[in-house]
Amino acid sequence: MICKFEIIYKGPIISLNHYKSLSWRKLKNKIDPLKLQLNSLITKKNPPKLKWMELRVSHNTNLDLDNITGTIKVFVDCLRHKKILIEDDKKFWDYMSLRYNPDLPKKTLIFEITGETQQCLTNLKKSNQK
User: Per-residue pLDDT tens for 30-77?
Assistant: First the structure.
């Protein structure tokens, strides 16, 4: 079964430039609070486990598009940590779009996930075993 859900995040953004310029300890001090917030948002949304996903991200930040990927990485890592996504390689995640949307409130990212649920995969395996 294909499902779609979105998670709206408002708050500090981790830039790709942070990954390039900060020591691992300073970067961790920025990433850890973001992980807590994103994990909380994911838990509240209670999405199903996914066999695969596509990710569309809309944002209104002062960052260039490529720099938003620093926060997207943390988000996808949280999906893996929560076991929503098995892995983040091309077998499970092969599409991402990113766009600037000035109509969103400032410092907002919307993660829109489309994917096939694990439940569908489990049912398929059961029916193939019969």
Answer: 999 999 999 999 999 999 999 999 999 999 999 999 999 999 999 999
- Name the amino acid, one letter, at 32: D
Reported residue count of the chain is 130
The backbone torsions φ and ψ at residue 96, rounded to the nearest 5 degrees and listed phi first, read -145, 135
For residue 101, the Cα-to-chain-centroid distance in whole angstroms is: 18
Q: For residue 79, which amino acid is it?
A: L
The structural domains of the chain, ordered by start, are 2-129 (3.30.1330.70)
State if pTM tops 0.85.
yes
Spell out the alpha helix ranges (H) of the chain. Answer: 16-21, 24-45, 69-81, 118-129
Phi–psi pair at 28, nearest 5 degrees: -60, -40
At a CB cut-off of 8 Å and minimum separation 6, what does 16 contact? Answer: 66, 67, 68, 69, 70
Cα separation, 108 vs 102, in Å, equals 10
User: How many secondary structure helices (H) and strands (E) does the chain include?
Assistant: 4, 4
